[in-house]
Amino acid sequence: MTELSTVRWGLLSTAWINDAIIPAIAMSPRSELIAVASRTQEKVDKYAQKHGIPRAYGSYVELLADSDIDAVYISLPNSLHAEWIVKAAQAGKHVLCEKPLVISLDEFDAIEAAAREFKVVVFEAFANLHHPSIRHALEMVRSGALGDVQFINAWGYIRLPADDMDNIRLKPELGGGSLWDVGVYPVSLAITFAGVGAPVEVWGSQITGDTGVDIAFAGQMRFANGVTAQISSGICSPPSTGLVIVGEDGALELRYPTIPLHVSDQEMEIEHTASSGGNKTIIIPVTNPYQMEVDALAACILDGAQPVVPLSDSREFLITNLALYESAKI
Prior knowledge:
Elements: E1 7-12, H1 18-27, E2 31-37, H2 41-51, E3 55-57, H3 60-64, E4 71-74, H4 81-90, E5 94-98, H5 105-118, E6 122-125, H6 132-142, E7 149-159, H7 184-194, E8 201-208, E9 214-222, E10 228-234, E11 236-247, E12 250-254, E13 268-274, E14 279-284, H8 289-303, H9 311-329
Parallel strand pairs: 1-2, 1-4, 2-3, 4-5, 5-6, 7-10
Antiparallel strand pairs: 7-11, 8-9, 9-10, 11-12, 12-13, 13-14
């Protein structure tokens, strides 16, 4: 619990995904966006003016030194997440960081230690895992509506512009690659719905692009409870995302389980097929998952609530991604 009534936010970077978070903070009843930082003052001044953000800092260090800021949203390249999560924690700031939280176990151990030492919440930004469509499907699985789950299939694909060779997703030194980008969604969904932590066995295969990162990835997982999952991802493919969960007594299908930005303001549908026959479409009302994750972090800070995506889950996601990449090297 805290005496604060409103969480005051700062943005570390001016990345495009901020277009989802800025309105989410504005809609959140207990949040307020007061600052943004970039690497140059000229750039951040223009950005702050465009988005109506009161304070603009020409360095990340300056923003972290602002005592009025309670939490930061980090949307930097993957390779910089660990460094700035730790620095934010040391400055007493709570953290919402874009997925993947980090890309190595050493980095994970460092941020976990910093969060514990400086008593801050560090929260991986899987907005989709907050969405009622995912929560409803998860409750159906946990309640036994499908019987024992046997198989999970999850995928996510995007197409990067062919001429965008400077995209950070194509740079190995910045933690690029399809599995680290859109692939973390199907991996996290498979682990979440299997319900027993990281898989006990994985197999991975990748297609490597000209820059050395995986532009497409396919993986298979076996979990301790016997569930098998298949995942795939790509960054040079037609856009597509989906989730299928098959149990002995029924199946669920979600068309947009990653809740990409262009459908975050639409109704969602869950297709439920029962083995006894008949299909049922479950309509999930419009909900902004980015606001939900902002609200969730505010609840952690203001009310002492537990994260929807705790660090223990983020560790399982990371371990699995690393194992899939290791398998793909063989």
